[in-house]
């Protein structure tokens, strides 16, 4: 009896470490469609007749007028009504990279929808750099007054301040990421719209020239700092965006000058620091994966350090590897980093796992983790664990994508979703009038289909609380890499 009792206790301890709910299968194609549809709910500007998220309407139609510029369009970054160019450019880069790497796996209709989502971002980014070589717009909307209100984007009456950086003031981060976005998008449109592709590439080169010629962080400029900080300051330095922008221009143009730039500036701009992070503010891991493609295909010795850094990053993601450091996982198996909006790490890292697996497979190589080698299959399995967790294989049995599955967040931190649409209430809802909807315990009246929320905490807990923005707010840069990830698994659903 004693042995049976001990066995029962051990079994209970082991099973508590596993997700409590596991789906037999996921409809990755449905999730892909919804992940792209989400971007229509984030649109600013004049909405087209084929707008599918019908509870949204045109907004921000005077953006840029104080500078006699047209800055309409683009995306609201999250649940607010501000257009932050730094994360918007990163979102556009990741949507474009999704199309480049996985577009052929998408059904034709979804590929078109993904390209439309890319173009909604690039059309705006082109406007933001239309006054180069001496001026770049980096944001529209005063976030301090905006965040003090709870109102629909169609009603907003807060200041639509256009934040601008003029030469010789620096904006290497925003300009470098804009260059990356436009260069990547030029590749995404190369076949379907070569004229637009050429326009994007020409402007990417101009944006990079500003970034490189006026080095420094945009948030160090006194005239924009109060608007961009603490929301989207450059916390991790501008150097990675210079290398990131150059790497994308190298891939889009095959111009040797950008290859020289990556080789010559890698050490001085911190490429060898091997920072194990990838997101709107830190491009190091993505840079290493992107440049590794060239090394794997050419064995160019000068790029070997990028491959070594990419390997090192991958090894931290695989519990079986012999590396001394591993990225933290929740008890249910979700990649976790402190700071809120945690799913941004899971989706972006899953994307890198799949892209790197493809690069390794095409060149018949593997990742070296000390005495252990990791092949493409191992990397893909880790990515799949993240995807399945997000879609419902987790201790809560909840999908963290709005509108997908039987149980998903109902009270997301999002103004347009939580307030009655203008179809249901035509009269404006003022700045403070929306508070009653914010404080309501009921579900949001408008379903922001496809939105990925910030996600659970380090203990896998999630309360579906509108006020807890760290867990319940969706962002464009959580969704963007997930588009490519879902495209892969929709085409390869039976990966074990």
TrEMBL record:
- What InterPro entries does this protein map onto? 6-hairpin_glycosidase_sf (IPR008928), 6hp_glycosidase-like_sf (IPR012341), Glyco_hydro_9 (IPR001701), Glyco_hydro_9_Asp/Glu_AS (IPR033126), Glyco_hydro_9_His_AS (IPR018221)
- UniProt entry keywords in alphabetical sequence: Carbohydrate metabolism, Cellulose degradation, Glycosidase, Hydrolase, Polysaccharide degradation, Signal
Q: Where is the catalytic site?
A: 413, 464, 473
Against Pfam families, the record matches this protein to: Glyco_hydro_9
Instruction: Enumerate the spans annotated as Glycoside hydrolase family domain.
Output: 28-486
Entry GO MF terms: cellulase activity
Question: For this protein, what is the EC number?
Answer: 3.2.1.4
Which segment of the chain is annotated as a signal peptide?
A: 1-23
PROSITE patterns assigned: GH9_2, GH9_3
Q: Which GO terms describe its biological process?
A: cellulose catabolic process
* Reaction equation(s) it catalyzes: Endohydrolysis of (1->4)-beta-D-glucosidic linkages in cellulose, lichenin and cereal beta-D-glucans
Matching PANTHER family: ENDO-1,4-BETA-GLUCANASE
The entry's family comment says: Belongs to the glycosyl hydrolase 9 (cellulase E) family.
Q: What is this protein called?
A: Endoglucanase
- Classification lineage: Eukaryota, Viridiplantae, Streptophyta, Embryophyta, Tracheophyta
This chain is encoded by the gene named LOC115735664
């Amino acid at each position: 009896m004693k042995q049976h009792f001990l066995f029962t206790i051990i079994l209970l301890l082991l099973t508590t470490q596993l997700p409590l709910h596991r789906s037999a299968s996921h409809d990755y194609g449905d999730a892909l469609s919804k992940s792209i549809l989400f971007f229509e709910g984030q649109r600013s500007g004049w909405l087209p007749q084929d707008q599918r998220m019908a509870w949204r309407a045109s907004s921000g139609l005077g953006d840029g007028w104080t500078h006699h510029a047209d800055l309409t369009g683009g995306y609201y970054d999250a649940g607010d009504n501000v257009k932050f160019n730094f994360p918007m450019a990163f979102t556009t880069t990741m949507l474009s990279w999704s199309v480049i790497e996985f577009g052929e796996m998408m059904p034709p209709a979804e590929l078109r929808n993904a390209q439309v989502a890319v173009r909604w971002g690039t059309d705006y980014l082109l406007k933001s750099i239309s006054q180069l070589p001496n001026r770049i717009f980096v944001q529209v909307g005063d976030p301090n007054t905006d965040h003090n209100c709870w109102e629909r984007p169609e009603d907003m009456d807060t200041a639509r301040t256009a934040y601008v950086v003029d030469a010789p003031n620096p904006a290497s981060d925003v300009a470098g990421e804009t260059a990356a976005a436009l260069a990547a998008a030029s590749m995404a449109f190369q076949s379907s719209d070569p004229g637009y592709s050429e326009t994007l590439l020409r402007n990417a080169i101009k944006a990079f020239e500003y970034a490189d010629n006026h080095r420094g962080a945009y948030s160090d400029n006194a005239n924009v700092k109060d608007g961009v900080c603490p929301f989207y300051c450059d916390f991790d330095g501008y150097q990675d965006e210079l290398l990131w922008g150059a790497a994308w221009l190298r891939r889009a143009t095959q111009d040797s000058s950008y290859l020289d730039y990556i080789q010559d500036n890698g050490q001085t701009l911190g490429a060898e620091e091997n920072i194990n992070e990838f997101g709107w503010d830190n491009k190091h891991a993505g840079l290493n994966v992107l440049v590794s493609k060239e090394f794997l295909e050419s064995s160019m010795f000068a790029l070997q350090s990028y491959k070594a850094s990419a390997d090192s990053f991958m090894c931290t993601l695989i519990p079986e590897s012999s590396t001394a450091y591993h990225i933290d996982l929740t008890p249910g198996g979700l990649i976790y980093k402190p700071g809120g909006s945690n799913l941004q790490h899971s989706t972006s890292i899953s994307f890198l796992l799949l892209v790197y697996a493809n690069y390794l497979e095409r060149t018949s190589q593997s990742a070296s983790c000390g005495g252990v080698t990791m092949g493409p299959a191992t990397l893909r399995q880790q990515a799949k664990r993240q995807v399945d967790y997000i879609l419902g294989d987790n201790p809560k049995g909840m999908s963290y994508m709005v509108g997908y599955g039987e149980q998903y967040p109902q009270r997301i931190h999002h103004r347009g979703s939580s307030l009655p649409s203008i179809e249901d209430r035509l009269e404006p809802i003022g700045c403070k009038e929306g508070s009653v909807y914010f404080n309501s315990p009921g579900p949001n009246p408008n379903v922001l289909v496809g939105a990925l929320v910030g996600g659970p905490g380090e203990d896998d807990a999630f309360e579906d609380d509108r006020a807890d923005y760290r867990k319940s707010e969706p962002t464009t840069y959580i969704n963007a890499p997930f588009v490519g990830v879902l495209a892969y698994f929709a085409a390869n659903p039976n990966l074990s």
